[in-house]
Design brief:
Elements lengths: L3 E3 L2 E3 L1 E2 L13 E3 L5 E3 L7 E6 L6 H13 L6 E7 L3 H11 L4 E5 L5 H5 L3 E2 L4 E2 L2 E5 L5 E6 L9 H13 L1
Parallel strand pairs: 6-7, 7-8
Antiparallel strand pairs: 1-2, 3-9, 4-5, 6-11, 9-10, 11-12
Length: 168
């Protein structure tokens, strides 16, 4: 299992660690209108899944904006940002920030995504910062579990992985 800290303190990740080459686990999260969303809903696209502890924090805000700007402009790529924030808060945040290329999804109801991808921090009931790229055939082509949840992910590597997956 990936080793992750939050503000320097080790946390226990619940669920299964996902690795490159795995078939991407399915999940059910909520859209901003409270409708259920699964991985299958974006079938046929490359998915860059950006996982953040809370959309309302500085690093999470920056991560969501960066992927909105860069990955959102790659043909055939859907950018999904997943957190346990309430759908209402995600909707308000997106409206206030004018982001149009990223879809925010809430895992607050049953942490289905967090458990399926091994990013649920048991002690905090938040998701650890991570990035996954899933190709059109539902294969995981890129994984980053950020070792310190308050740090930024490797944006360049994730964006490059999404570009490569989109070209195949």
């Amino acid at each position: 299992m990936a080793k992750v800290t939050f503000k320097g303190n080790p946390v226990t990740l619940i669920g299964n660690e996902v690795k490159v080459g795995d078939v991407a686990p399915n999940f059910t999260v909520l859209a901003n209108d409270l409708s259920p969303v699964t991985l299958d809903d974006t079938k046929g696209f490359v998915r860059l899944i950006s996982v953040v502890p809370s959309i309302d924090t500085g690093v999470c805000d920056a991560q969501t904006r960066r992927f909105n700007e860069e990955a959102g402009s790659i043909e055939g790529v859907k950018v999904l940002t997943i957190s346990v924030d309430l759908p209402f808060a995600q909707k308000r945040w997106c409206a206030a920030n004018g982001l149009e290329n990223v879809v925010t999804l809430s895992d607050h109801r049953d942490v289905s995504f967090g458990q399926a991808y091994g990013v649920l921090m048991q002690e905090l009931r938040l998701l650890a910062r991570a990035v996954f790229v899933v190709d059109r055939n539902d294969r995981v082509t890129y994984v980053e579990y950020v070792s310190e949840a308050t740090n930024h992910p490797n944006y360049e590597a994730a964006i490059e992985a999404a570009k490569q997956a989109a070209q195949q």
